[in-house]
Specification:
Elements (H helix, E strand, L loop, with lengths): L4 E3 L4 H10 L4 E4 L5 H6 L7 E4 L9 E4 L3 E5 L4 H6 L1 H6 L1 H9 L3 H6 L2 H7 L7 H6 L3 E6 L2 E6 H4 E3 L2 E2 L6 E8 L5 E8 L10 E9 L6 E9 L6 E2 L1 H7 L6 H14 L10 H24 L3
Parallel strand pairs: 1-3, 2-3
Antiparallel strand pairs: 4-5, 5-10, 6-7, 6-10, 8-9, 11-12, 12-13, 13-14
Bound molecules: flavin-adenine dinucleotide (FAD).
Length: 292
């Protein structure tokens, strides 16, 4: 049996004061679909768990003023997937969250936990990087905003201090004439984690013939999920011909720094980045075809 103290605070203030009191000894518990597995495996041994599920601020799921999507850190993935503004306006995030685990995992697990667990393969991360999401982080002295790009600091490491918690993820309305696509490769079709994942997000001109903006993010092929600015810069101002897309895909593969492990070799992962980058750009372009 693993022994630990369990707290279920009912306000953000109470949660933060518990984190202060048990600084360095406590872990925040959201859905527990990563945390409890790590505890059972003996990879981590927190003395205290602070349950986030009853904190109202962490349960906010809102589309405010039709401009900003707020995803509270304790909101289950299944609610995010079914939330109409996510379905209608944030297709790339909807695709990624729908892929995570199973119905049971999505009923417990959260976007917040996916991000705070900071696995390089976290499926919500590449789309949120493309959407330039921000993390709202709180400690007992106040709140700060951390762009998601600086939130991930290494495998399992985030910008959160030991007395801080993630309150919510904020995502602004994407630009007009934009669309994205997230694809991942898993050796098994279901209940597996990505050996590589790519999110591509494009903004086209009203005429639709050239690329006004591009954001490309990779998962599971570097110590953290990453954007690849060199590929994005290459695409901007160009007509998205098959040749340009193929060149962008080569560049994305070159920018990845995958490792070899039990699940895939570095070489195979790099090849996957090339294929997935090509496909996600093509699919985003196709999705925009109907809008321009
Ligand atoms: C069978 C199975 C299949 C899975 N499939 C996938 C998959 O396809 N894709 C994928 O990406 N993941 C997958 N996962 C991993 C996991 O389900 C997801 O990462 C999920 O989103 C984690 O959310 P959670 O709420 O359960 O996090 P938890 O396990 O509760 O927490 C994860 C980590 O984040 C910290 N944390 C949580 N909330 C906060 C907060 N508000 N502030 C600070 N720290 C916080 C915790 O302390 C812990 O370190 C799978 C897991 C299982 C068991």
């Amino acid at each position: 049996m693993i022994s630990f103290e369990y707290y279920a605070p009912r306000s953000l203030e109470e949660a933060l004061s518990l984190l202060d009191r048990w600084r360095g000894e406590a872990k925040v518990l959201a859905g527990g679909t990563d945390l409890t597995v790590q505890m059972k495996d003996g990879r981590i041994h927190p003395n205290v768990l602070i349950d986030a599920k009853n904190v109202p601020e962490l349960n906010r799921l809102e589309w405010s003023d039709s401009r900003v999507l707020h995803i509270g850190a304790a909101v289950p993935l299944s609610k995010v997937v079914d939330f109409p503004p996510v379905v209608e306006r944030f297709g790339i995030l909807h695709q990624a969250c729908s892929l995570i685990g199973s119905i049971q995992i999505r009923n417990r697990g959260t976007v917040g936990g996916n991000i705070c667990n900071a696995a390089p393969s976290a499926d919500a991360a590449p789309p949120l990087l493309c959407l330039e999401a921000q993390a709202v982080v709180a400690h007992s002295g106040g709140t700060r905003i951390v762009p998601l790009e600086s939130f991930f600091q290494g495998p399992g490491q985030t910008a959160l201090a030991s007395n801080e918690l993630l309150v919510e993820i904020e995502v602004s309305l994407p630009p007009a004439l934009s669309a994205g696509c997230y694809l991942r490769h898993t050796p098994r079709e279901e209940m597996d984690i990505a050996v590589a994942g790519v999110a591509s997000f494009l903004v086209l001109t009203p005429e639709g013939d050239w690329c006004q903006g591009a954001r490309i993010a990779l998962g599971a092929v570097a110590p953290t999920p990453i954007r690849v600015p060199q590929v994005e810069a290459f695409l901007v101002g160009k007509t998205l011909s098959e040749g340009i897309i193929a060149e962008a895909a080569e560049q994305a593969a070159a920018a990845a720094s995958p490792i070899s492990d039990l699940r895939a070799s570095a070489e195979y992962r790099r090849e996957l980045v090339k294929v997935l980058t090509r496909r996600t750009i093509q699919k985003a372009r196709e999705a925009l075809g109907s809008k321009v």
